[in-house]
Design goal:
A hairpin with a 2-residue loop joins β12 and β13. The chain starts with 11 loop residues before the first strand and ends with a strand. Strands 7, 8, 9, 10 and 11 form a 5-stranded antiparallel β-sheet that branches. A 4-stranded antiparallel β-sheet has the order 3-4-5-6, with no helix packed on it. Strands 14-15-16-17 form a 4-stranded antiparallel β-sheet, with no helix packed on it. The longest helix is centred in the last third of the chain and has 12 residues. By secondary structure, it is α+β, with helices and mostly antiparallel strands.
């Protein structure tokens, strides 16, 4: 639960269903620290085991995004409380999520959490957690084995850092699945500025997460412009496209990357003639645009 993308009152709750998802129980609290507990991951293990994960940000980071009425809460958090709760967190249940044990911390973070492998072990693939949010110098994607008896974590291996034009990119929100033959398949969201690259890479492991193949890009179209124009995808007024940094598109043009633009039509917001005219003018200057999708 949270009120906004960065919300100091965020918390992790869980609902259960006993009729194949037709109805759910009322939310029950799982993780609620003094900080902005964020995106939750959930996985099962063994017969009745459940692991729920989350992560949070520093008080100073939250202040940059807080509303005036939220500052009193942030001011009330002591350094000792912040140090106690800050981190990538998780809790374990052994009775199907009815009760949970103490709060543990992980050296890595990923919003989707760990997975149970066929051998019964729990593997967690995540990005190095940093108290200052994502930091390029320490950023890395690593695999750990979670000891579901006591919450300790054993390092397995890590994926080679991804570079773009010779520079290290930011790897975010990795997630893995295990295939029938035991191969572990990992996907990583990769970002790089100033060209605002936003795409997907893939890596594989055949030894339980100890070694990984060199990450391979699997999306040919993958920037703020290339991914169907994120500004348009989320229903922002077309006029905003004219203020986007054209270096993003020029980079795509130089790389001969084909671009599809998606325009979401929201009556009274993104369907004004002047906005559509600006969109047309914007597209006319982009030689690598191959299609326009107009969605209701």
């Amino acid at each position: 639960y949270r009120l906004r993308h960065i919300c100091p009152f965020g918390k992790a709750v869980m609902m259960t269903s006993t009729d194949d998802g037709q109805t759910y129980s009322s939310p029950s609290l799982v993780i609620d620290t003094c900080l902005d507990d964020r995106d939750c991951g959930i996985a099962t293990f063994g017969k009745n085991g459940v692991i729920v994960t989350s992560f949070n940000n520093t008080v100073n980071f939250q202040r940059k995004h807080a509303l005036p009425e939220e500052m009193a809460h942030l001011d009330s958090i002591t350094p000792e409380e912040e140090a106690r709760d800050l981190g990538a967190t998780f809790r374990l249940s052994y009775d199907g999520g009815n009760t949970f044990g103490p709060l543990y911390k992980s050296p890595i973070t990923s919003p989707h959490g760990p997975i149970e492998l066929k051998d019964g072990s729990v593997m967690w693939l995540g990005r190095t957690f940093s108290c200052e949010n994502a930091r390029m110098e320490t950023d890395a994607v690593k695999a750990y084995r979670v000891n579901t008896e006591n919450g300790t974590m054993e390092y397995l291996g890590e994926i080679e850092n991804i570079t773009v034009d010779g520079n290290k990119a930011l790897s975010c929100e990795p997630y893995a699945i295990e295939l029938e033959d035991g191969t572990i398949l990992a996907h990583i969201r990769v970002q790089y500025y100033p060209i605002k690259l936003f795409t997907l890479y893939q890596s594989k492991s055949t030894d339980g997460g100890k070694t990984w193949t060199k990450p391979k890009r699997i999306l040919e179209i993958g920037t703020a412009v290339g991914l169907s124009s994120v500004a348009m995808l989320y229903g922002c007024p077309t006029a905003r496209l004219t203020t986007m940094e054209l270096e993003e598109e020029r980079y795509l043009e130089a790389k001969q990357v084909k671009v599809s633009i998606r325009h979401v039509v929201v009556p009274g917001i993104t369907d004004e003639p002047v906005q559509l005219a600006r969109l047309g003018a914007f597209m006319a200057g982009l030689p690598n645009v191959v299609s326009l999708d107009v969605l209701p």
